[in-house]
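Next comes this protein:
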Amino acid sequence: MQKSKDPLHGITLQKIVETLVDYYGFDTLAELINIKCFKENPSVKSSLTFLRKTDWARKKVEDLYLRTLTKFNKN
């Protein structure tokens, strides 16, 4: 069986958002990624609803998650 080379393989969008919120908080997330769901009444649920419909925003969140993972792995 071949292992996926995609670092996001098997990781849900919910897990990604929850990890980023735990690490940065919504205030910092809104500064790093300028999207309304992180700025106005932010919640994991509302963010997931928006990100599932909006490919460009989801891509930004996934890219930030991957960059953040490299920080975790250095510590």
In short: The mean pLDDT is 91.
